[in-house]
Amino acid sequence: MSRMLMSLPVTDPTWIFLIVLVIILFAPLLLNKLRIPHIIGMILAGVLIGEHGLNILERDSSFELFGQVGLYYIMFLAGLEMDMEDFRKNKVKGLVFGILTFVIPMVLGIWSSMSLLGYGFVTAVLLSSMYASHTLIAYPIVSRYGLSRQRSVTVSIGGTAVTVTLALVVLALISGMYNGSATAMYWVMLALKVTLIGLVIVFVFPKIGRVFFRKYDDAVMQFVFVLALVFLGGSLISLAGMEGILGAFLVGMVLNPLIPKVSPLMSRLEFVGNALFIPYFLIGVGMIIDVRSFAASGVALKVAVVMTVVATVSKWLAAFLTQKIYRMSSNERRMIFGLSNAQAAATLAAVLVGHEIIMENGERLLNDDVLNGTIVMILFTCIISTIETERACRKFAMDEKPDRRDDEEKEKILIPVANPDTIDNLVNLAIMIKDRRQRDGLVALNVIDDNKDAYSGESGRRNVEKAAKIASAANVRTEMVSRYDISISSGIVHTIKEYAVTDVVIGLHKKSSILDSFFGSLTGNLLKGTFREVIIARLEMPVNTMKGITVIVPQHAEYETGFAKWVTHLCRLAVQLGCRIKFYAEPSTSEALRQVADKADIGTLAEFISAEGKSYAERLEVHVGKEQMLVVVSARAGGISYEPGLDRLPAVLNKNFADTSIMIIFPEQIDNKDIVSFSDPRANL
C-alpha cells in the first residue's frame, strides 16, 4: 500500500478498477445523507482523484473507453425508455421546445461571446452551439422515480433530439470550413449520408431485431445484440460526419417497441448502464476539470462565469417560454429546465474539435481558457440540472395520486408451468399485463399428479424455478409453489383459493388425439372450479415482437364483473409493446371500452371498430397478420355476455387461425359457488 501511495498515479489495472468501484459504491451512500444527487458526487469524485486533484488516477484509455460507452448509454436509454405514444402526442411541443432551446442560447451566446469576451464571429457561433446542445445527464433520476411518461419529460427528450442535431450540424459546418472540405458537394454528401444511414437505422434495425428476438431467447445473446446495434448505429452516424450520440439515441427510439419497459432485457440494460458505464463516464468528466487554472488566470475565471451564466439563463428562458406557450405548471417547467440544462456530450465534442482547429493567425479557434471554462460550465450545469430534476421528480411523486384504493383487491397472477417451452412467453405475458407498480404478484405453480413418479415432480420444480428466474430478471418477485393433488385442475383451483389469486394465465392445450377437445379437460374443469379471470394463450412468437392486437368482444361484455379488469390488462399489454390495439364490438360496448381505456392512459393506441349487427362468428372473419395477436373475449355458459356463437369458437380458431398467436379470455364473474346450475361451461368444447 505504501509503495502504491508513493508511485501515484495508480497504474495497476486491478487497483484502478477497485478505486472506481469504491467510488461508485460509497458516493451514493454519502450523498444520500447530504441529500445531494448521486450524479454530482461522481463528477466531484472525478475532480478529487484526477490529475488536477490528488492525482490518484490518470484519465487513461479505460476512462475514454468506458466513458464513451457511458455517453452512448445515456442517449440510448433516453430513447429506449421514452414513451413513444406520449412522444407522438407531444411531438409539436417537443419541436417547439427544441427550436427555442437552440435559438435562444445561440442568440445570447453570440452576443455575450463577442461583446463580453471579445471573440470573433466564428468562435462565438461554435461557442453558442455548445450552449444550445445539452445532455440528458439527469435522466437516470427520472427513470428511478418512474416518471419517464410525464409530459414534461417527453417534451424534453423530443427537444433534445432537435437541438443536439442542430448543434452537431453547426459543429460539422465549422469543422468543414477549416479542413478545406466546406464545398457545396461536401454539404450535399453530408446530408445524403446522414439521411441514408438514418433510414437504415429506422427501417432495417427493427426488422433485424424482431428476427433475432424470435430466434434467440438467451439473455446474454440478446443483451450483447442490443449493445452491438447501439454502437453500430453510433459508428455509422460517425462515419457520416455527425457525432455518434445521435445514432445511439436513434437506435434507442427504434428498439423501443421491441424492449418493453418491464421486460427482463430492459432491467439488464438499465442495471449494467447505471451500475458501471454511466458512473465511469461521469467520473471521467470530473477528471478533466483543472480547478487550479482559475486561480492562476483571471481570464479563465471570467470565461467560465460567462459561459455558465449564459448557458443556464438561456436554457431557463427556453423552458419558461415553453411553459407559457403550452400553459404548463411551474413544476413541469422545472423538469424541462432540469433535464435540458446539463452540458456534456455534444459540448465536449464541440470544445475538443474547436481546440484542435488552428486558425490562419496561428491561434486555436477555442483557446485554453474556453477549454477550462467549458469543463467548469459542465460541472455547474450538471449540478444545477441534477438538483432541479431531483426537486421536480420529488414534487411529481408527492403530487401523484394513487389510482388504487386501499380496500381494492391486490392483483396476483397464477402461472401453472408444465411445458418448459412456453414458460418464457407466459411469464413475460403475465409481467406485461400486471400492475407495474407492484414488485410482486406472480405465483408459479407446479402441480404433481399423485399417480406420477418422483422424476416428474423434480422436472416440474425446475420449471417453477425457471419461471421465478425470468420474473426476477424484470425485478418481479415470484412465489414458487409445488404441490401434489388428485389432478392438475384440482391443484390449480386449490392454489387459487389458498394464495388469493385474482387471475390465471395458462398455455393453450395441445390436442393429443382426434377425439381430444380444443381446450382439453383441464380448462373445462378450471372454469368450473373458479370464477376468476382465466387467460389462455398460444404464442407463436415472443410477446415483445408483436406488431398489433385485434380484440373480438361479444355483446353485453360490459356487464360482466371482470370487464374493466381484462380491458385494463390488454391496454397495459399494448402500452408495453407500443402497438395498436383494435376492439371489434357493439357501439354501446365500444363506449364502455373507451372509458376504461382512457383510465388506462393508452392514448391513441386504441381503435374502436363497430361490429353492429354482426354475429360473433362474423366478427371472427377478420384478417390478423402473422406478426399480430388475436384476442378472443369469451364467456362462461350462463354469463351475461355468453352467446351461442361462442360454441363454434374452437372450430373457427382451428380453421382460420391455426398459425396465429391467440389469447382467449374468460372474464371474471361473480362468485356463484352457492348457486346450483345444470349448465356445463365447456360442454360443447
Overview of this structure, please?
- By secondary structure, the chain is an alpha/beta fold.
- It folds into 3 domains: about 60-400, Na+/H+ antiporter like fold; about 405-530, Rossmann fold; about 540-670, HUPs (Rossmann fold).
- The chain has helices at about 1-5, 15-35, 40-50, 60-80, 85-90, 90-115, 120-130, 140-145, 150-180, 185-215, 220-240, 245-255, 265-290, 290-295, 300-325, 330-340, 345-355, 370-400, 425-435, 455-475, 490-500, 520-530, 565-575, 585-600, 615-620, 650-655; strands spanning about 415, 440-450, 480-485, 505, 535-540, 550, 580-585, 605-610, 630-635, 660-665.
- Strands 3-2-1-4-5-10-9-6-7-8 form a 10-stranded mixed beta sheet, sandwiched between helices.
- Helix 19 (about 425-435) links the parallel strand 1 and strand 2.
- The radius of gyration is 29 Å and the shape is elongated.
- The chain starts with a helix and ends in a 19-residue tail after the last strand.
Shape from CA axes? elongated
Radius of gyration: 29 Å
- Structural domain tally: 3
Helix content: 55-70%
Give me the side-by-side strand order of the main sheet.
3-2-1-4-5-10-9-6-7-8
Task: Tell me how many strands there are.
Answer: 10
Strand count, sense and barrel status of the largest sheet are: 10 strands, mixed
Described by its quaternary structure, the protein is single chain
Structural class: alpha/beta
**Number of helix segments?**
26
Q: Under the CATH scheme, which architecture of the largest domain would be assigned? A: Up-down Bundle
Low-confidence stretches at least 5 residues in length (pLDDT < 50)?
Answer: 402-407, 512-516, 674-685
Amount of beta strand:
5-15%
By CATH, the topology of the largest domain is Na+/H+ antiporter like fold
Distance between the termini: 76 Å
Query: What's the overall average pLDDT, rounded?
Result: 82
CATH class of the largest domain: Mainly Alpha
